[in-house]
Protein: Ribonuclease H2 subunit C
Organism: Pararge aegeria
Amino acid sequence: MSIKVENNLKERKDDKIFEQKAHYIPCQVEEDGPANVSEYFEPYVVDNGNGELSATFRGHPMDGVKMSLPDGYRAVIVEEGKRPLSEDAERKFQVSGGFKEIIYWNWDKKPSRNDNLAKSLVWMDIAKAIHGD
């Protein structure tokens, strides 16, 4: 099986498509479609100052923090148009947007530099320093 990612957005002049909001919530939701986050979640996010955020998801309190990707990096969002019937068939994805900042949430503790996501973002800078440009 091979995976092919096509970027039909690389010639777009409008960079807003690459400034979308992304939330990382440590849970599994049994749904694979769009979610109206801007209406049902984001209005209830509280900025506690010092970059700390709080919110609830399905009645569970969460603590969050905004995390920026390192300079020179941008995350992309890819979507699969139609999944092939065979597991061995080529899969095709399209770039549908991107982001440079992610809001990272935890259920049971405040986000810290010791969390895996935070360490992975630091590792990109460390790898660049070790291996050069």
The mean pLDDT is 88.
